[in-house]
Amino acid sequence: MAGVVLKDLTKEFKEVIAVNKVNLEIKDKEFLVLVGPSGCGKTTALRMIAGLEEASSGEIRIGDRVVNDVSPKDRDIAMVFQNYALYPHMSVYDNMSFGLRLKREPTGKPWPLNSKRTFHKVEIDRRVNEAASLLGLETLLQRKPKQLSGGQRQRVALGRAIVREPKVFLMDEPLSNLDAKLRVQTRAELIKLHRRLGITTVYVTHDQVEAMTMGDRIAVMNHGLVQQCDTPLNLYNHPVNIFVAGFIGSPAMNFVPVTPKAEGDAVWLDAGAFKVELPKELADKARGYVGKESLFGIRPEDFYDKSLVGLVTPTSGNTISVEVEVIEPLGNDVEIYLTTGTQQLIAMIDSKTQAKVEEKLDIVLDLEKSHLFDKDTEAAIY
Ligand code: ATP
Predict the structure, then answer these.
(1) Largest Cα–Cα distance of the chain, in whole Å?
(2) Do β-strands 266-270 and 275-277 pair in parallel, antiparallel, or remain unpaired?
(3) Is the Cα dihedral 287, 288, 292, 293 positive or negative?
(4) Average pLDDT for residues 191-206, to the nearest whole number?
(5) Residue nearest atom 5 of ligand 1, based on CA coordinates
(6) What is the C-alpha to C-alpha distance for residues 13 and 20, in angstroms, rounded to an integer?
(7) What is the dihedral of CA 304, 306, 307, 309, to 10 degrees?
(8) Are 6 and 58 spatial neighbours (Cβ–Cβ below 8 Å)?
(9) Is the pLDDT confidence value at 1 over 80?
(10) How many other CB atoms sit within 10 Å of the CB of residue 110?
(11) pLDDT number for residue 165
């Protein structure tokens, strides 16, 4: 078992800085997700840990070894890709055991020249059978990949990684070739598997829902930089900047340009079309921004229909009048597209709402859960 430490890790491809001084400490047995939009550098970071890409500068440590100059096969890692890359002419058993049949059994002694010894058949059998039973593949070991479903093929690819008994799993969008339902199911299987094996895992995805549901911690990347690395709940509740706030959560957080205004002890956020009064604790944090245009953030799930009993008591400081443009029923909730002045907002509210398209609606905002950002630095004020 081993943790992974990245220190000022950088990769430059001519003029493109794909990964820019990334510092991450991935703990032993941790499941860390690297998430971010296309091109943010997550795959390049993973490939550098795997040794498939050479770092331009910085250090990669796996366990207590600096591995920058260690070849991929000697890094004690196993990779699972989006494209499972199984050998079509080989059985499941042979696909899973292929790597072991090529690899020499470690003895601690130098190997004689031209030695071809691999793992012993008994050891290969043990590992493949154990992995097959863990993944529910026992009855499929003699089949060829084309006789398997997509989900089963992905499990074989996982099995091939498990039999290597690596110190670290590196996974690059391993679920993106599966259909939506299978993806959710396999996601849960992967989490259970990680709990049972306890192998340190670095998992790359662009899907923030996958990141939120799977990661012990999530590193959100953009433009080659780690924007924030924290637990899923801390990222959701305390994003450090506008990018993380907008990336985590679906539908995305609403952002509204506002000017904080002081009225006695109170601080109001004036958006032109509406005004809200900040709760005391948040008002204290926003006071330094009075008169300075800032960005107010509120998640769709923190809106309530005033006419329904909600978690928030309506007051003149937290209620705004809006016009309903579109209503999308989702079952338990409805997603409502609203406008107030020129500002568009998205709200998720209880489906008991009587809201009607092109009519007015009074909406209560849970301001305790709102956010305010500095427009220049894009950093969170609270
Ligand atoms: P995706 O989700 O689309 O795979 P990503 O976040 O994994 O994106 P990377 O593949 O790491 O992003 O790429 C990061 C940046 O580096 C991109 O701008 C990409 O164009 C660039 N890049 C990646 N590989 C190379 C390469 N071999 N040569 C030049 N530029 C590259």
Answers:
(1) 85
(2) antiparallel
(3) negative
(4) 93
(5) 39
(6) 11
(7) 60
(8) yes
(9) no
(10) 7
(11) 86
Q: What is the Å distance from ligand 1's center to 249 Cα?
A: 24
* The two three-digit tokens of residue 97, written as one number: 């055991």
Cα(333) to ligand 1 centroid in Å equals: 38
* Shortest-distance Cα residue to atom 16 of ligand 1: 18
pTM equals: 0.90
* Sequential DSSP letters for 292-309: S-EEEEE-GGGEEETTS-
Q: Looking at this protein, which amino acid is placed at residue 179?
A: D
Q: Which pair of structure tokens corresponds to residue 35? A: 């998430």
Q: State if residue 43 touches ligand 1 by the CB under 6 angstroms criterion.
A: yes
CA angle 244, 248, 347 (to 5 degrees): 115
State phi, psi for 357 to the nearest 5 degrees.
-60, 140
Distance 203 CA to ligand 1 centre (A): 16
How is residue 207 written in tokens? 């899907």
DSSP-derived letter for residue 70 is: S
**128 Cα distance to chain centroid:** 30
Instruction: State residue 106's pLDDT score.
Output: 59
Query: Between 180-197 and 150-162, two packed helices, what is the crossing angle to 10 degrees?
Result: 20
The number of beta carbons lying within 10 Å of the beta carbon of residue 229 is 21
Tokens of 163: 């039999």
Return the residue matching tokens 């059978």. 129
Minimum CA distance residue for ligand 1 atom 10: 43
Domains parsed from the chain with CATH numbers: 4-247 (3.40.50.300), 254-374 (2.40.50.140)
Q: Residue 328 phi/psi, 5° resolution?
A: -115, 110
Decide if 85 contacts 98 (C-beta within 8 A): no
Q: Residue 316's Cα: distance from chain center in Å? A: 38
Name the helix (H) or strand (E) containing 159.
helix 150-162
What distance in angstroms lies between residue 307's CA and the mean position of ligand 1's atoms?
Answer: 49
* SS3 at position 317: coil
pLDDT digits (tens, 9 = 90+) for 104-147: 555 555 555 555 556 788 888 999 998 898 888 999 999 999 99
